[in-house]
Amino acid sequence: MDVLLHLIWLHTLRVFSAAYAATHYNCNSPLVSILPQSSFQSSSQSSNSFAAHNAKLNRRGGAGGWSPMVTDRDPWLQVDLRDQMKVTAVATQGCSISSDWVSRYLLLYSDTGQVWKQYRQEDGGGTFVGNVNSDDVIPNKLSHSMRTRFLRFVPVDWNPSNWLGLRVEVYGCSYKSDVADFDGRSSLLYRFNQKSMSTVKDVITLRFKSRQAEGVLLHGEGQRGDYITLELHRGKLAFYLNLDDTRQRFSSSCVAVTVGSLLDDQHWHSVIIERFNKQVNLTVDSHTQHFQTQGEGDSLEVDYELSFGGIPLPGKPGTFLRKNFHGCMENLYYNGINIIDLAKRRKPQIYSVGKVTFSCSQPQLVACTFLSSSSSFLSLPVASAIMGGFSIRFQFRTWNPDGLLLSTQLSPEHQRLELLISNSRLLLTLHNFGQQLEASAGHRVNDGLWHSVSLDTRSLQITLTLDNEAASTIEQWEQLEARGSFYFGGCPPTGFQTPTLAFQGCIRLIAINSQPVNLNHIQQGLLGNYNELQFDTCNIRDRCLPNLCEHGGRCWQSWTSFSCDCSGTGYSGATCHKSIYESSCEAYKLIGSSSGFYSIDPDGSGPLGPALVYCNMTEERVWTVLTHNITAPVRVQGSSLQKPHIMMLNYSASAKQLRTIITGSEQCQQEVVYNCRKSRLFNTKDGRPLSWWVDQGGERRSYWGGFLPGVQQCSCSLEENCIDMNYFCNCDADIDTWANDTGVLSYKDHLPMSHIVIGDTNRTGSEAIYRIGPLRCYGDKSIWNAASFYQESSSLLFPTLRAELAFDISFYFKTTANSGVFLEIMGHKDFIRVELSSPSVVTFSFDVGNGPAVLSVKSHLPLNDRQWHYVRAERNVKEASLQVNQLPLRFLDAPADGHRHLRLSGQLFVGGTASQQRGFLGCIRTLTFNGVTFDLEERAKMVPGVSSGCPGYCSSSSSLCHNSGKCIEKSSGYTCDCSQSAFGGPTCKEVVSVSFDRESSMTFTFQEPFSVMQNRSSQASSARRESISRAREDVAFTFITSQSPALLLTVNTFSQQYVAVILTHNGSLQIWYHLQTHRTPDVFSPILSSLADGQIHRIRIHREGKDLYVQIDQDIHKKYTLSSDAELILIRSLTLGKVIRRDNFQEEVLLAGSKGFIGCLSSVQFNNVAPLKAALLNRGSSLVTIRGPLMQSNCGALADSITSKNLRGNTHPQPSQAKDGKESNDADSNNFMSRQLVTTFWQPAATFWEECWEHCPCNHAVFFYSMMKVCGFRYISYRPKRQVTKKH
């Protein structure tokens, strides 16, 4: 249905396009060359020879163009086209025979020549490229045409060696329209010929402009509950549509589809509504929403009439249920009927309510824009007031949560009045001889809407009124008078300074003491003073429309930029593009993870979200297990083909996620356990299936494992062990005893099973019991998909890529070459290129229309060392980044108002370039673009100079190095670099364990503040990043203890933040996050049972922003939400065991820290640091501080010993009972752990002890025993040949 609907829409749009093209087949005629001199105006002219009317393209009269005065602060050239025209392109030249030209300019348009709006291309770019000399004509085609009468060219840059000069041409055609003007109390009713109108398809088009943020444009309803309503609400278009759903009535509870923003800007906006049955397209300007409407029917049934401009109250003409539209509409069509034309011709189908006129004569409200948050201001003189004091009124709109709106000095002296936006509220402050009196108003006044402010001091109180809210007041003792000037938006450099940011936004309708202020006089220099202002326009933009935050990220904006809140999305980055999860269980194993539940993102940064799976890593293969909702065996009785038993399986992943996981796996399978008694799978007479299953594509399947699709047999037939060899399934023998036809489905294209249907259990004694196992897959085909390039002129070609707004490219490479291009893709001007530019430098370069941008990462070690190196490049509308191995990321911020769309048309070249020069020599694997992995091996089979796979020990899927260890190629073999792993040994599999006693502690001090290990391309971007959290921690460790409370691990920062993992007094685990020092910490208890049980426990903690994921062993998985997404700023140290310094720990953490930790810790990992291993390898380092005894050990052996000891019972001599019972228990725990440690880890020492006891002088044995006591071992759990007594 969706495909059919899409085809119908395409056909409809093509018909409309063809008709429109027939009318405007040549809409590129020059419009300026025929204009009279009076059509040209300018901000100034340097002389009569450079007057505005000389600015026609190729004009050589006068001085051959327009040029303003050198003192002109805001130069512009204006063209009046004399009527509404459709404009499709513009072109510019410099002044004839001169060095004056404009290299970049803005284009503004207006219906009246008073209120202007900046034209922006579809990708958001608002600056047009101009000239580089005086005579060449530089055309600029508009990405979308505009309907306007006035155009204004505003130079931004010009010849830096001389001055600016301009000649212009505008291309387009005439534009005719039918216009209706609604005054806020009027409407047009289109009445049907019959009682009701029922339609399955509707097309409604119109254009409108308004200065009001509220108002109904269209409404119709029917008695059965259908309705259709289009209205302006808070400057956006809200669309309500319901089809035959009596439960839904037009009310505040109805959900609207919202499109557009800032539509009350007094400029024309186009609307197209297309409906076919329940499917709807709603387009406002260039933004389209596709959705399916509510209701049970497919037709829209409207009674009597459609209303345009308001919702009249039945029986009461001129009264309305909701606020009416106040503005103009043009070219209003309902299913091909021209409503305004019928109204103009007074046709009987149209009934007018109130006054509707047929010309657009809306009064224009002129505004000015404050451009800079640091230097914009407008100063106006104080006007005299009749009654003393003063009053000020104005309207403003902004996105910024802070900014100074108004300030003035007062009489008597040393007093000042300030009105500012603070934390999105209005705050009025009277500075009075060192004191501050305040009043506030409003809530979230930075919502982009117009807000009215009134300030009055003409009585013994200061009154602040916002919109229609109740007034706020500040009482005063005497009449206040303003002295000097009123400063709007900011202060001049020589005036009094405030720490508040200047206002960025729009202001209009300024009145001082009830006298309106003429903004034109200010611009002409006749009134007041100003800086960094733009007149005649409110240049506000909604940077969150469209929402450029991906994967459901929430968009926040200021006047100059936007940011994305990625909390809870599973993605990170400036636009929530990068997945925080690995793509497969295989990838998790490569980074050192163990079996457990994980979220995997099978298409990375693609549109599919993460899926929760179980990764089984206990076997040689890594299995991905996807469960469904039917896990227990199901008994079936009484089913037949007419009334079959049907069970639907719902998996832990969506259908698209399942398909992606299956496609990317080497092999998948699903077990079906089927037990039957007098229940057949196939009809024994004609072979028709009596039971079957349905695959993920909806196709019926009747094979039950062991055979290829289409063969209606069971596993016993393949194995030749069916009960009755006359049948291909055991169940088909139809016997009274239980039979089994269990099988494993393994044909990937049909997996997983979505339904199972049982149809033969309705006979006496018939029944079946089945159980459907989870989907199990192994192998990640993408990880080791590689190609070898051994000719510089050879490359792999792939189709062009769509990467307009965001893309990421990642791959691994190894080479011995000094340089070479990894990949390149070109457009007409745009391009992407990633290359090894020197033996130690990787470079990422691209161009989206703002000029080439280059990012480079330099390694301190050569990258052409025959080892695998990781590269990831990303570009989005906010920034570009480049990552190489574990080196600090490099970032480059995108221009604030530059081009956004990357337009590529050429093929993707991998291993070379289109010019066949600078090709790459070496291996590339795991090449991924926006979550899609390229099959390099298959493509390499067809290209000379390239071969599939990559030679070397480290180039296969076999896990030579484990737990994040890096495989290093050698001339004859390989070695494993375990420096980034918490494990050791030749293959990074040996557990690094250390035994602690009560006084033991190990502190690892980070060599540099950890949070500043990311270098950036510009310091200016750091302030912006405060709102974009990149906070992430990965913590993992294993422990054994019988002690509680205990401190396992703590991380401290220089800014008094900390993370602590403790065992409470009852042995339960607690995780403390103290990210904001002025707030109480977040505390989480994932498990209430005791972990101080002498067993091995594995803890994994992962944080991404506010999301905290905790895994305990393999069976406990919890997700929590932190109160803050703040980063750990300037990480100082990580401590294991007893904490000496108190810092700002809470009491419970202090108690655990004072008790220390008695037991064994192993495999400790914090992000990319393995502190426990670092401590053992660098005992003399200044970065490692050790207190008390630490001894390398084996936690697994210790756990076995403790378990064995608990089973046998404690036969060792007990310490004397302490007076304090609690202290005695702690001591006993300490002694017990110590005895076990001696038994397990000191067997060589025990042998020496026995020999020493037999043959050495007593003082030697006493010395050895003393050394053991120093190490914390007071009792020995084995019995030597001679009894040890305390007197020795």
TrEMBL record:
It is found in: Membrane. Residues 179-360, 367-538, 785-950, 1009-1195 form the Laminin G domain. Residues 540-577, 951-989 form the EGF-like domain. Transmembrane segments: none annotated. It comes from the Eukaryota. Residues 27-173 form the F5/8 type C domain. The keyword Signal applies. It is a single-pass type I membrane protein. PROSITE patterns: EGF_3, FA58C_1, FA58C_2, FA58C_3, FIBRINOGEN_C_2, LAM_G_DOMAIN. Residues 1-21 form the signal peptide. PANTHER family: CONTACTIN-ASSOCIATED PROTEIN-LIKE 5 ISOFORM X1, PIKACHURIN-LIKE PROTEIN. Belongs to the neurexin family. This is Contactin-associated protein-like 5.
